[in-house]
């Protein structure tokens, strides 16, 4: 067994100290500041800010965009992970590379891409007008931008797990006459359940906090296309600091809820893996 020396103990506590200091400065202090500033003028002011009509609409729009992004990315993530790990086909490496594209592209650039694709200067804009479909400066554009920046999360959590499991069990079930959906439901999904839930949580967290792409394509129409992060920015730019921090505290509470959910999923996943042979 490794025996700690005085120098190794010093290095250990030095590294722990740096980690704790970083967490305090970068996470705890901002969190405390948000909560403190939110209640700076009392609970009545806080309640008024978080129940304001524009705030409520921003909350519902954020939840709507998040829910749609999670549902669509769940379908895409499962399909992409299944196809990339269970089948061999031409263009497989290209598809793998494209999945990582939103991670490498700035969210602002992503918003600009959608703006150029569906805006007035786009060649398909007359067709969208004819069909009375509005994407730019409307809710569909916000949903598309949110989907774009979040779609790698679920597939990227599933692909390593599926690759590690291999295809032996699925092939054996297929030889015994099991259909594709039955194989997925009875054999594949139980093994990837925790990774899938973890990916969903990460996807939801990223969707709720998205700012750049949504900011470009939303048009900042108050009460119509403003999500919570955009609403916080507007309040802050109007020098309404206490309401801005009050609304930001909602995002903090959502982040804490997601953090707890992620921790529970990680714990249950590790516990399940220990039980399995």
Give an account of the 3D structure.
It is built from 14 helices and no strands. It is mostly helical. The longest helix is centred in the last third of the chain and has 35 residues. The chain is globular. The mean pLDDT is 88.
Key structural traits:
single chain, mainly alpha, about 280 residues
Oligomer: single chain
- Look at the helices and sheets and give the structural class: mainly alpha
Low-pLDDT residue spans: none
**What is the count of helical runs?**
14
Average pLDDT reading: 88
Helix content: over 70%
End-to-end separation in angstroms reads 27 Å
Described by the principal axes of the CA atoms, the overall outline is globular
Order of helices and strands: HHHHHHHHHHHHHH
The total beta strand count reads: 0
Percent of sequence in beta strands: under 5%
Rg over CA atoms: 23 Å
Question: Largest sheet at a glance?
Answer: none
Walk me through the topology.
Elements: H1 6-38, H2 43-50, H3 53-86, H4 92-99, H5 101-104, H6 107-118, H7 125-130, H8 139-150, H9 152-165, H10 168-175, H11 180-209, H12 212-218, H13 228-237, H14 241-275
Helix pairs in contact: 1-14, 2-14, 3-8, 3-9, 3-11, 6-8, 6-12, 8-11, 8-12, 9-11, 10-11, 11-14, 13-14
